[in-house]
Write a structure and sequence with these properties.
6 helices; Rossmann fold; Nucleoside_phosphorylase_d; about 30% strand; about 230 residues; EC 3.2.2.9
């Protein structure tokens, strides 16, 4: 069973429309849409925006649906000059940039008493996604790297520069690291897929509405193809 999480309704509606044998169960005010896509058993759900929603959603997928992989689709702000609006970022690892326990001797971004600064995404999922994206989205570029998450929409040049300098991430958004942490704690392979909707700077609030639909179309095409080609033990 593959769990697919989107932060917004626009991200999951197209996937739901392509599913067969669908049943819906509501938990924690979230609609878990179970069915089949490309011959595979999947659960598609809109988590809502932010880390708390994303973490709760992932735990429900683990507890009630026993998923053996979690794929999180969505959009993000670019933190790298070569990554343009519409391009895709696939996570190698994820971390929460708004965690600060420096006073206790931890580096910024590390959750106290967790073993590592970041959570590692599944390499097999990332490799499969990269091949699928090159096939279904040949007009855009695909990048692998660190995804940063925090409960804030980054639209400030100074904040962007701090994120780049401190963490070296490729993009910033609001859910991925929470999904990564919950998946890690449950021993579930995960991948964060992000289409770039803005540059995470002073132009972000202007770019985001114009390019949101385009970014979502790229992630939907990728996930549909990926589900069909993914082999899970």
């Amino acid at each position: 069973m593959i769990g697919i999480i989107g932060a917004m309704e626009e991200e999951v509606n197209q996937l739901k429309a392509a599913m067969e044998e669908v049943s819906v169960e509501t938990k924690a005010s979230m609609d878990f849409c179970r069915g089949r896509l490309s011959g595979k058993d999947i659960v598609v759900v809109r988590s809502g925006i932010g880390k708390v929603n994303a973490g709760i959603c992932t735990q429900i997928l683990a507890d009630l649906y026993s998923v053996n992989a979690v794929i999180n689709t969505g959009i993000a702000g670019s933190l790298h000059a070569q990554i343009d609006i519409g391009d895709i970022v696939l996570s190698t690892d994820v971390l929460q940039h708004d965690v600060d326990a420096v006073a206790f001797g931890y580096p910024v971004g590390q959750i106290p008493r967790m073993e590592s600064l970041s959570f590692q995404a599944d390499r097999h999922l990332a490799d499969c996604a990269e091949k699928c994206c090159q096939r279904v989205n040949p007009d855009i570029k695909t990048f692998k790297g660190r995804v940063l998450s925090g409960d804030q929409f980054v639209a400030d040049k100074e904040k962007k520069e701090w994120l780049i300098k401190t963490f070296g991430g490729l993009c910033t958004e609001m859910e991925g690291a929470a999904i990564g942490q919950a998946s890690y704690l449950n021993g579930i392979p995960f991948l964060i897929v992000r289409a770039i909707s803005d540059k995470a700077d002073d132009s972000a609030s202007m770019d985001y509405p114009a390019f949101e639909a385009k970014a979502i179309s790229h992630t939907v095409a990728l996930v549909k193809d990926m589900v069909g080609h993914l082999e899970l033990v």
